[in-house]
Amino acid sequence: MTTKATRTFYSTPSPYEIKFGYYRGVRRNSHIFVSGTTAIAVYSSGATSNLPSPPPQIQFPDDARKQTVAAFQESLRAVNALGGDVSDVVRVRMYVARTEDCGAIGEGFRDIFGKKTDLPEGMGAEVIQGKADEVGVVATMIVVKDGFVEKDMLVEVEVDAVVDDNISNQQSSIM
């Protein structure tokens, strides 16, 4: 008889989590999945009161790089709360509202997850052995056709992490 894996959930007062009934993150065994996250100021949204919620406040409405950093920082709060660390992140996806913001969003990604090691020069692919606590992820950036649910949202990110329970993880400080 096999036992069913347990799940641990992480929730925020995001108006979208409340309205649509999903969690910011879920951990099942060693895997952590963080749902699409934007630069919404979740704790200023009023979403936890019984009063009508004001529109969500988008942080940095005209700055794609800062929105990217804020969205990844919020995603990493979920990873940390579920027992992971920035070094456990293995994949990110970035959904972009405007093609012209791809460069700034890439810079925001690099601020948080960019390669910390120098790669050898040349044309050939190479396998590089990373250290257990080294940050290194695979990434995808996709431009969405009609934008997001709020016009000031410039980027939405998803984060996947795999926690190696044999290695003691220290909670990372989030900028």
UniProtKB/TrEMBL annotation:
Question: Which Gene3D superfamilies does this chain map to?
Answer: RutC-like
- Pfam families per record: Ribonuc_L-PSP
* Protein's name according to its UniProt entry: YjgH family protein
Where is the organism placed in the taxonomic lineage, from the top?
Eukaryota, Fungi, Dikarya, Ascomycota, Pezizomycotina
